[in-house]
Amino acid sequence: MKFRCERDLLVEALSTAGRAVTGRGGALPVLSGVKIDASNDRLEVTGSDLDLTIRTSVGVNIAESGTAVLPSRLLSDIVRSLDQGAVDLEVTGDEAQISSGRSQFAVRTLPVDDFPHLDEPSGDQVSVAADELASGLKQVVLAASSDDARPILTGVLMTAEEGGLRLVATDSYRLAVRDLPEATVLGEGQKVLVPSRALGELIRVLGHAKEVNVRLGERDVTFFVEPEDGVSVELTTRLIEGEFPNYRQLIPASYPNEMRVGREQLLDAVRRVKLMAREATPLRLTQRDGSLELMAVTQDVGQAHEEVDAVYSGTDELTVAFNPDFLIAGIEAATGDEVVLQTLDALKPAVMRSTEGSDYLYLLMPVRVS
Amino acid sequence: MTNGSWGEPNILHVDMDSFFVSVEVLRDPTLAGKPVVVGGTGSRGVVASASYEARAFGVHSAMPSTRARRLCPRAIFLHGDHRRYGEVSGQIHRIFHSMTPLVEPIALDEAFLDVSGARRLLGSGEEIAAEIRTRVHDEIGLTCSVGVAPNKLLAKLASEAAKPIAAVSGVRAGKGIVVIDAEHAEDFLYAHPIRALWGVGPRTYERLAALGVQTVADLAKIPLDALVGAVGMSHGNHLHELSLGRDQRPVVSERDTKSIGHEETFVRDIDDTVELHRVIVRLCDAVASRLRASNLAARTVQLKLRFADFTTITRSRSTKDELSTGNGLARVAGELLDAPELAEGIRDQGIRLLGVSASHLAPPTGLQLSFDDLLAGTERGAPEGSIGSGWHEVADAIDAIRERFGADAVVPGASMSPTGDRDRTVGADLWGPSDSEDEAGAHSRSRRGR
User: Fold this and answer.
1) Are B35 and B72 in contact (CB under 8 A)?
2) DSSP secondary structure letters along A139-162
3) Domain boundary at A197, A216, A248, which?
4) CA dihedral for B385, B387, B389, B393, sign (positive or negative)
5) Are B287 and B415 in the same domain?
6) Residue B186 is assigned to a structural domain of this protein
7) Given A170, A280, A370, which is nearest B371 (Cβ)?
8) Domain boundary among A114, A134, A161
9) CB-CB: which of B366, B371, B378 is closest to A368?
10) A368 touches chain B (CB under 8 A)
11) A237 and A342 part of one domain
12) CATH code of the domain in which B32 resides
């Protein structure tokens, strides 16, 4: 195998594929490497941890076709460190030569035959606007759990809803629901549970593209992104098996208390007061006519107070406490100049939503304080 | 030892004189002057407290009750009334707290006080000790002995030296207060047998005796290398420090309690894990009650197991959640019990004692509610392994019921045996179970870790 490629393109191809590579590869050492295929003037780089596979491809001048597996992290670090310009890569026997200008590296390859064979994506292909999917995923992935003890909650539910696509995630403390009415990815009644880690990676690559093509298979889903120039990406992830909790029953039918407040104003205030909410101390929000009072007290450290103008209707005065990070995530995920916080009481879920549009909902459980 | 290293005698060790027995005598004055023993009356019971008249026969606390009976057959044996002892203990500790906030409770009848901050207001350590003795006598009718010294080690030895003396000829009053100041510290310490030091158990004693070490003076003289060679590095260093009277441990007030725990010795060894889980539920319920009463939550749970051969092990686990319900503690303690490596020992040997303690304590910052809590009330129930699940509301209700109707008014269902028999109240078997199962259970008492 022998080819020449621009450093920047090669860095992108290697590092994007490398994001599917986890650590040392665990039980299968070859998984610490990326597979490089060079043929028909195309270079393909594949990284995988068996659950998530990312394949990048870029057009280059191939002098000699071939396949090799190289240590992902090391190769990526080497190429990144080189000066701008052309990089030559040549594999002979079990050694790869990487050279650029007067720099030369020789890297031992990993056995190609050990690299797992990955199924070709199956299912019908449908396409979705990349920016719409990316904005929807960003608002939902943040609510997914990272705790492997409950694998179902590490996924994002994608379900067909009134002809569009609905994205749902919860870590059991908050729930995010986003509707994409224009995106017809799934057939009526279809639903899949996609690992949020894979979707986090997808968000990164969606930035470069106008459109994303989706193929849904039996056990996995593949997303293709093909920008007009540059590196195209094919991301395949295994689906999570199991039943997602019935999130609909979590959403209260109505809320007696409603508060409207400037989004940026609230975000700034919460970030300031949070400085005094150490070690999982909650933030207390006291809502009353005309204002919202934020307070944090950490024993033996100190306290913070701030008042924010707000339009409030409901119970005379209501104090609800929240985890400040969960609160910030909800305010950030809402769009527009103003947000609405709807509450029942200090122990029931509260809703944070934007005043513009109703396609996003962030439901948050309070912190119970004595 | 450098004489200059001694500080002012500001640490007090206050120890009630045969506390449980004295409380009994207060209630029934006809017991006065007689050999009285309070403790477990069953075959595996131990002596908790003995009157000085009984001590004259060689009876002492922690001795098996059967042995005490043989030594002093005339002694009056009482199972004790923990509730009453707790009340009296509360009165005593209130007197301590009126002297200084730095009170470290060791037991119902024993505490360390750091009076360095109170001296200007209340006088010297010795004067404060005298004031405590007077008030305990006048207000409660009991006597206590006080050691006054620059550190805990010496204060403890000093209070021992202040105790009444039991002899076959009769009980002689003690000094009541012994003050160890810088000038006398060395002589006082050196005169003690090494057995008087913390950390010198039978095995250590044997090894040290083999080196010809009998007194603290001997211990202070032998080279550190020889000491380390005999008892190991960390223990050797520790003993060396003690022999020089060095004890840096501060007096830690109740507010800074490090752990809260309960343990129980069984009538017979238990090899059935289901039954052990029931015990865990019961102990955790009691620990959680005390956590909530002190407005504390725990992040670490420790399980202690003593096997039939007396091998004792502890296992602990920390969680990111703040635990303050019996259910939350029992879930973690139960996981520790279920560790595969323990299964064989439990099955083959059986468990003699089981203890649960909660540590890493802090006032609860608030509990992040989850949707599982929300669903707990619905027919679907909360998913397995969830922590909240409405148990905090249950705990609130339990506390309210107990406040009104007493600790026994409500118990966890999971602590009941399949036949519906109600298990004993926690703390009742602190000194070993009594043989008659229907004996009145005593109230739970604190065993405070350091």
Assistant:
1) yes
2) HHHTTS---TTSGGGGEEEEEEET
3) A248
4) positive
5) yes
6) no
7) A170
8) A114
9) B366
10) yes
11) no
12) 3.30.70.270
B227 and B268 in one domain? Answer: no
* CATH assignment of the domain containing B237: 1.10.150.20
Q: Per-residue DSSP letters for B379-438?
A: TT-PPTT-S-TTHHHHHHHHHHHHHHH-TTS---GGGS-TT-PPPPPTTTTTT---SSTT
Neighbours of B62 (CB within 10 A): 9
In a domain, A148, yes or no: yes
For the question of residue B110 being annotated catalytic, the response is: yes
Amino acid at A61: N
pTM for the model stands at 0.61
B373 chain-A contacts, CB cut-off 8 A: 365
Tens of pLDDT along chain B (450 residues)? 444 457 788 999 999 998 999 999 999 999 988 899 998 877 777 888 899 889 888 898 878 888 899 999 899 999 888 778 888 888 998 899 888 888 888 878 899 999 988 877 888 999 999 999 999 999 999 999 999 999 999 999 999 999 888 777 777 888 899 999 888 888 999 999 988 887 777 778 888 888 888 999 999 998 888 888 888 777 788 888 888 888 888 887 765 667 888 888 887 889 999 999 999 999 999 898 888 887 788 989 999 998 888 788 889 988 877 888 888 899 999 999 998 888 888 998 899 889 999 998 887 887 788 888 777 654 344 443 344 446 777 777 777 777 666 666 777 777 776 665 554 555 455 555 554 433 333 333 333 333
In-domain check, residue A370:
no
pLDDT mean across residues, chain A: 91
Strand (E) or helix (H) holding B312: strand B312-323
Asked if A343 and A350 count as a contact pair (C-beta separation under 8 A), the reply is yes
Determine contact, residues A79/A9, Cβ cutoff 8 Å. no
Q: B322's torsion region: left (phi>0), alpha (psi -120 to 50) or beta?
A: beta
In a domain, A353, yes or no: yes
Q: Is A119 among the domain residues?
A: no
Q: How many distinct structural domains can be found in chain B?
A: 3
Is B399 touching A (CB cutoff 8 A)? no
Question: Would you call A175 and B364 a contact, using CB atoms and an 8 Å cutoff?
Answer: no
CATH code, A142:
3.10.150.10
Tell me the longest C-alpha to C-alpha distance in chain B. 74
* B14 and B162 inside one domain: yes
The reply to whether B237 and B144 lie within a common domain is: no
Same domain, B33 and B119: yes
B373 touches chain A (CB under 8 A): yes
Calpha distance A176→A363 (Å, rounded): 6
Q: Which residues contact B209 (CB under 8 A, 6 or more apart)?
A: none
Asked if B39 and B130 sit in the same domain, the reply is yes
Task: Determine the structural domain holding residue B139 and report its residue range.
Answer: 8-179
Q: Quote ipTM for the complex.
A: 0.83
B110 with B208, same domain?
no
Q: How many residues does chain A have?
A: 370
Give the Cα separation of B40 and A164 in Å (integer): 73
d(CA A65, CA B175): 99
Q: CA A358, CA A342: separation in Å to the nearest integer? A: 14
Radius of gyration of chain A (CA): 24
